[in-house]
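User: My advisor asked me to double-check a structure prediction for PD(D/E)XK endonuclease domain-containing protein before group meeting. I don't want to rely on an old file, so could you generate it fresh from this sequence?
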Amino acid sequence: MSKHYEHSSFREKLIEHLFIGEMLKLSWQKDDCQLEVMKPEVDNAGCDIVLEENNIIRHIQLKTSKLGAKKSGQNVNVRLANKPSGCIVWIEFDEHTLGLCSFYFFGSEAGKPLTGLENAKIAKHTKANADGIKAERPNIRTINRGRFDRYDSIEALYDVLFVPKS
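Assistant: Sure, here is a fresh prediction for PD(D/E)XK endonuclease domain-containing protein from the sequence you gave:
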């Protein structure tokens, strides 16, 4: 059995910490050291971490997949749109080194609310009921990979997260 499957929760938490570490390092390198990191005690709105920099608060739902995975989209909680500058960051990682490779971003510009979930496809449960029917998940939407913006550096993602467009 693959370690990635057997220890997926461990891997997800590790990638989250690597991501937060890279964000903190960039704040350090920018000589401001102002990035704040918060972790919701309860995740009932799809928010995994909250980052604040330059008076921009980002409620972030983190998603991960190994480099080259065939995953075509991600499921997103619609309540994330109610949070200040809610967004989804989808991290592709190297399955051998766990290095962060590329970043996919779905959200609005810094300081603006998340839009685009209202017309997205309603997600379904992965397992069928006794009648073989996969029920809809009314608060979850599927966002296709093509709707995400790709960034090949953590620095570019940092700017998208925290620098308002002029």
